[in-house]
Write a structure and sequence with these properties.
CATH architecture: Orthogonal Bundle
Radius of gyration: 26 Å
Order of helices and strands: HHHHH
Low-confidence stretches: none
Strand content: under 5%
Shape: rod-shaped
Number of helices: 5
Structural class: mainly alpha
CATH topology: c-terminal domain of poly(a) binding protein
Number of domains: 1
CATH superfamily: Ribosomal protein L20, C-terminal domain
Largest sheet: none
Helix content: over 70%
Mean pLDDT: 95
Amino acid sequence: MPRSTNSVASRARRKKIMKLAKGYFGRRKNVWTVAKNAVEKAGVYAYTGRKQKKRNFRALWIQRINAGVREYGVSYSKFMGELSNKNVQLNRKVLADLAMNHPEAFKAVVDKVIK
């Protein structure tokens, strides 16, 4: 019996990749092998980017908290140490938001923790 190929499934696989490559520059958008490589590489970048995003935001929050507490003559590490000693359950994201957008509320937190 002759070998049978499933051209419907093959075409569907290719269409899926070509759809993901839409908008790419040059041959990356319309040549199968180049588009396939570009989409695979883009997937790797997307995966690592999702991990880096978490790191970047944590670093940003730390910088904002540090800038906020320096106004009151305290370092970031001392502030965070006292925060855990006083059992204040506020994470860095919330503290950074308070420091940026609600300075009076942030001052109240700093006063509670430091004094």
